[in-house]
Amino acid sequence: MPKETQLEVGGLEATAYEGLYLTGSGFSPENLYFITGTFCGWQSMERMIYSTEMGGWGYAITLGEAKVEEFQIVCNMYEDAKVFPVCKTKDPDTLILGPGTAPQGQNWVIDGREDGTPQGSVYLVLFSWDAQAKRKRITWSVTDNPVVLAVAEGLKYKHSYSIVGSWNGYRCIDMQPVPGEPGTYETFVRIGLEGEEEFQFWRNRHRMQAIYPAMPKAMRTAVPVRGPDDRGEQKNWIVRGPTGEGVRIQLQVWEGDISVTISSDTKGTKTWTNQLGEDSRTYFVTASWNNWGFTQMTQSRKNVYTTKMVVESADKLESFNVVVDRDTHQVIHPEMEYAPLEVSLAQGPDDKGKSLYWAFAAQAGTSVKITLDLTQTDKRQMVIWEDEGEQTPALEGHEFE
Q1: Which domain holds residue 257?
Q2: What is the reported pTM?
Q3: Which in 70, 211, 253, 290 has the greatest CB count within 10 A?
Q4: Are 292 and 188 members of one domain?
Q5: Helices (H) and strands (E) in the chain — how many of each?
Q6: Quick one: 210 and 350 in the same domain?
Q7: What are the tens digits of pLDDT across the range 29-79?
Q8: In what order do the strands lie in the sheet with 184-190?
Q9: What does the alpha-carbon distance between residue 193 and residue 206 come to, in Å, rounded to a whole number?
């Protein structure tokens, strides 16, 4: 296991690795670079093509029907010589590590849902060396270059979708396409002795590509669909009914829209859908003043969320961080324990936020407004708070135990 250290490059402080991992080494002429990812089901390593004109190694990735694809780069086809970002990211400017052994899930993510790119569009991925900054660079952009389109045409991979459920011990079972309904798959199951079953879906039979509800044990159709990604652990839909009753389950994935429909005689039909963009996610403050429960933040404008609390005691240090979808594996947190205002970069969402909180103290009766601003480029400004003066003790937001 490599030793973790902290480093700062271009204003971005991040966890890096000593020994096996390199960040400042240029390209060696004898090396070849390959690319692998969800666009090929992680089943092959496709050789990248060096372009003198573009100054780097390129490859074409076709955007599938979910409109999200992940990838890594591999040096000389060695599994222990991968090139990857310091964390799973949609940001091409994130620090690049490698060649080395890539931790699971640390991939680049191309997300066509956020900018409205149609499925079937082709992205040119370019891997290059920035001699001035002494850094590896990665970029991707939609292209209509005929040479790149021809490369994409040579790799026609069709995503598959499987269901993983309690009725068979959570074994992965392929779903069958529905004729005449693009992107629609279905299966039929029967309710067991306990009167309920749980399930989620996997793209390409891979648990790191799960499609799941935002909340565990989801029954309400207001709970949005999430994925495909690696955050679906213990997040399943529940279907209930008499023992032996048949239930038809359909999954539709098309142009980035995902819907899940279940139908049975006793419960009728229920449908869940995904909601695209950051606005679809819910953000909660978990804190010392709500006994580490969840207080939902209110959206004040696009990608900006707020909540308020009232300080009860001047002698107490209050601490908090922010959780996505009430999922403690998706925590937005500082880099240090009890971080003061505008000192620490916001990290995450990830599962590394245990014991890492922002902290403040104020006079008793003071109202404090906490803001999560996802538009900030300076991550020290992403989570801030301000004193709004003395107020009648109350807590704004929705409480969840």
Answers
A1: 161-273
A2: 0.79
A3: 253
A4: no
A5: 1, 34
A6: no
A7: 788 999 999 999 999 999 999 998 889 999 999 999 999 999 999 999 999
A8: 176-177, 184-190, 246-254, 257-264, 268-273
A9: 28
